[in-house]
From TrEMBL:
<dbReference type="GO" id="GO:0016614">
    <property type="term" value="F:oxidoreductase activity, acting on CH-OH group of donors"/>
</dbReference>
<protein>
    <recommendedName>
        <fullName>Glucose-methanol-choline oxidoreductase C-terminal domain-containing protein</fullName>
    </recommendedName>
</protein>
<dbReference type="InterPro" id="IPR007867">
    <property type="entry name" value="GMC_OxRtase_C"/>
</dbReference>
<keyword id="KW-0560">Oxidoreductase</keyword>
<dbReference type="Pfam" id="PF05199">
    <property type="entry name" value="GMC_oxred_C"/>
</dbReference>
<keyword id="KW-0285">Flavoprotein</keyword>
<dbReference type="InterPro" id="IPR036188">
    <property type="entry name" value="FAD/NAD-bd_sf"/>
</dbReference>
<comment type="similarity">
    <text>Belongs to the GMC oxidoreductase family.</text>
</comment>
<keyword id="KW-0274">FAD</keyword>
<feature type="domain" description="Glucose-methanol-choline oxidoreductase C-terminal">
    <location>
        <begin position="104"/>
        <end position="162"/>
    </location>
</feature>
Length: 187
């Protein structure tokens, strides 16, 4: 997407981008940094969404786009959202951190089901309290406990499971002394 001035289609977006940057800088300068983070987070999500969209577009239609310029403010600041570049940067970071073998898979997925929830220790890793059957007092609060994926992004389900577990632990519904391999005792 290219943001332009004037009567061109989408020209009003440049003024909105300028206002956004000014507002963020003003918030930081006046100590309202926390509120300004929400805007930055939303902008980062927009860039990530654009990267995913263009990668899917390229893969789906054979388009060879490597990046799409986004003009944020005058003077023109062009920021690419290149999947290839980001992959190289993260690979370099991994090697710098001491990684021996770095496997890069060019795909997007919501990986779930690696530590499935169930009622039988023979066929599942955690019980309905998200407590592992084999290790006492170990809880798993991520997407791996979902036995299967629904029709869309599982982020809200994962957040709900984590929130439910945290609330139950705080209330005492999940006891620390529950027996391994048994259902957790209720308070």
């Amino acid at each position: 997407m290219l943001l332009t001035r004037g009567s061109a289609r989408g020209g009003h977006l440049v003024e909105e981008a300028e206002y956004f940057v000014d507002r963020v800088l003003r918030n930081v300068a006046h100590g309202r940094f926390e509120r300004s983070l929400s805007d930055l987070t939303a902008f980062a999500a927009l860039v990530t969404t654009a990267e995913v969209y263009f990668e899917h577009y390229r893969a789906s239609f054979g388009n060879k786009w490597m990046w799409s310029p986004i003009v944020v403010t005058p003077p023109v600041v062009v920021t690419g959202v290149p999947l290839k570049y980001s992959t190289q940067v993260i690979t370099n970071i991994r090697h710098a951190a001491g990684a021996q073998d770095v496997l890069t898979i060019q795909r997007f997925a919501h990986l779930i089901g690696g530590a499935r929830m169930g009622s039988d220790p023979q066929t599942s890793v955690v019980n309905s309290d998200q407590r592992t059957w084999a290790v006492p007092n170990l809880f798993i609060a991520d997407g791996s406990v979902c036995p299967t994926q629904g029709s869309a992004n599982p982020a809200l389900t994962i957040m709900a499971l984590a929130s439910r577990l945290a609330e139950r632990i705080v209330r005492g519904d999940v006891r620390a002394d529950a027996l391994v391999g048994s259902r957790s005792a209720r308070a």
